Amino acid sequence: MSPLQNHITALIRASGPLTLAEFMALCLQHPEHGYYTTRDPLGASGDFTTSPEISQMFGELIGLCLAQRWLDMGAPAPFTLAELGPGRGTLMADILRATRGVAGFHAAAEIVLIETSPALRARQAEALAGYEPTWENTFAPKPQPLLLVANEFFDALPIRQFIWDEAGWRERVVGLEEGALAFGLTDATQLAALEHRLDDTEIGDLVEVCGPAEAVASEIGAHIADHGGCALIIDYGDWRSNGDTFQAVKAHEKVSPLDSLGSADLTAHVDFQALAQAAEPAAHSPLTPQGVFLERLGITARAQALAQNLTGAALESHIAAHRRLTHPEEMGTLFKVMALMPSGAPAPAGLQNGA
Ligand code: SAH
Questions:
Q1: For 48-57, what is each residue's pLDDT tens digit?
Q2: Distance 42 CA to ligand 1 centre (A)
Q3: CA of 105 to the centre of ligand 1 (A)
Q4: Distances in Å between the alpha carbon of 329 and those of 27, 37, 172?
């Protein structure tokens, strides 16, 4: 048994089953043995790959989208340029490289990285050598305009799962069966917080709730409503997700979430409606597939320009990366983009209705 498995088993013996959120938080963030505490999980030799790691084009286009919004806001200085869960720092590095030519943007930007993992903070410091980012464990921005990006951050936050049956809501928990970790269900209760889900929920349906994601969205929304700016949230998920999306991934393969505690990535799809509602009074853009967003920002033209200097295997891999980011059978449709902005402000480039 791994030390984390021992710890979780002992906890359940002592005080009963854990909610999925408690289980997920321990597996991902335990200060000694948590998945994100102990490793850099990204890339071919890691467990999963993300859009900024697939191609520089992703961060470049997001950089231009954010810089355009900054210009449209009247080029405020100073402003906070924040990223939630920056991984290896690749996205922020690409954003900064692509916006070097935007006069005044870098001088005005105070770069803030929200990251709990010491291993990844070190990677981010390397990727952003030459800039002066500051790190925070939680999102608490200064009272000034905010441009924020979060790619595959919200899917890492702990969820709870509830199943609706005749008697009420039963919560899915992790307990012990003959000494081994096993999923179970609590007795049914009525939950006022889930009342609004009854109109699209039938007996036996499973609903996921991510309290920490809603709390962060609420802070971003309140900040943007008061101080101006815009947040780009990119993740896999949908508008009002329904069903079990809790998954564990190790070495690019799906594994059982109850195996490999602390050495597999645990995620759940993002419920964008819940984020949009939590962010009020800020407004939100239409939820837009990543492929559509990147095409509207000009990824094909950028891909063609970069292809001019490539041949052989490098060209093949560049073409595959373009496809991977945008094609409906790859990340183009599963991944979605939503912006938060002040009520009355237009959505940023790439996210307007019907654009
Ligand atoms: N955005 C990056 C990395 C995605 S992985 C990319 O696209 O490549 C998820 C990131 O969120 C990691 O950097 C992880 O350490 C960070 N993270 C996960 N949970 C967090 C939390 N509760 N608070 C702050 N950062 C967190």
A1: 999 999 999 9
A2: 10
A3: 25
A4: 30, 32, 31
